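Before a computer can learn anything about folding, someone has to put a protein's shape into writing. The outcome of that step, for a single protein, is printed below:
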Amino acid sequence: MNRRGEDRVQENYICPCHTFLAGEMVSIITGVQLPRVISRIFLCLLSSVASHAWMGSSNLRPNSIGVNYGQVANNLPSVQQAVTLVRSTTIGKIKLYDANATILRAFANTNIQVTVGIANDHISSLTNPTSARSWINDNVSPYLPATQITTICVGNEVLTAADQSLLSQLLPAMENLHSALVSSNLQSQVKITTPQSLALLSNSFPPSAGAFNPTIAQSFIKPLLGFLSRTNSSLMVNAYPYFAYRRDPHNISLAYSLFLPNTGVNDPNTGILYSNLFSAQIDAVYSAMAKLNVTDVEVGVSETGWPSVGDPDEVGVSVQNAMTYNQNLIYYIVTNPGTPLRPRRPINTFIFALFNENLKPGPTSERNFGLYQPDGSAVYEVQELAKPSTSPPSNNGSSSGGSGSAGGYSPPNGSSAGGYAPPNNGSSSGRNNSSGGSGSGAGGYPPYNNGSSSGSNSSSGSSGMGAVGGGNQTRIWCVAKPGTDRSLLAGAITYACGVADCSAIQSGGSCFYPNELVSHASYAFNSYYQRHGRNYWNCDFQNNAIVTFTNPSYGGCIYPAN
């Protein structure tokens, strides 16, 4: 994968953010012509509503967002653990960079759509029709229909690659693969495409001026687009607002790059006011295709993302910016505004990447695009990835663990349980009503979503992670989240120990030391989680718990894992 191609085109993304003339007519996302002053008000209102919505939205459509599952690391969790993690989120699509048999089998019967990849160095062999048929027979047909393979990505950024021989080999390989799909009657189920860098464009600002590199536009790009049109497939591009901002932070607004409220950028040729760089990048590709008289091919995004850690000279890199970009991107995709040139058209999008990959070459940022650490913990919280919580089994404190009391547990250092009580089963949903009435927890604390009107999701703090069901044999633990609110821990421990076995953290127990709240909470949360089916709602505790693939046991203190 070569995202360096992004840097080669970013001079086209110089976006002056203060070029507004009062009364000038513009066409905003809806396509309606409005006076500039009205459009500015509309944009501000839209941004304000969106910024509130993506802080609380949780009811996302299934299969709405995709994620790249890369393997350039030596410390990744097992494939089964990765599948468990993906299934516990709203991620509905996974994109691979090869056709890894173990991964394809692991995603069988998960209802998660899978895109398989073909590396650049395999393209040459696929110009042979027999080899293409063998590739389909070996890497696609055996896994269908259990594994929902929907797309084959041939190569990566081939049209801007250093190996010029690939340019003439790409389309024949794609045609041969499609013919092989036709022979197996799979052409409607599986599509052929190819991910390309935005360096494919010789110009991209303003979006209406988007144009392909003239040296390859007619000879390679137009025939490729013709194939995509005939086969009802899409052109995939690696679109990274981060690289555009990093290259020119003085002229490109950070807010514009992160989908945050901003004054917008005007396209003087169309009067369209763009509120985010992501849609401007995509529309530049649509404009370039239109200049080749191609208007019926959709543009998808094979990679996009924002790094959470970088080198000192890498502008804009931070955990906060990465979280903001990906959370707002997901909201943008699932609410489906499309782009100004293609309003209300879904954008098939894959975030890069599922995990931080420690063996990727290049600057530090290249190894820190992941949503998750290799141990399965979230790099940062993305509410939009948390699955909407279904009502967990009611718990009135009468389970085998006791009657809801602390079971003799005494919080360390004189901490108080804060009057915490188990969830009140008076509500029809079986969830705690923590409005302050009977059964409210310490400080309104429930161990899972209380169904309040705040719109927050119970799994948001744990990044939606957790076992898919009690029958899953993957070893996963539930622990207190680093930096958690200690004022809530004592009450949470009291509840968890009332319905689970916490004898190990009693005085003299094998896990009593270290005698401090976070350590005791981790053991109590895990005991509760393992005992109650390892469902994602069992490891939440009002955003104070998170699941992990790393065994937290130490010395003689053993954390159960089943």
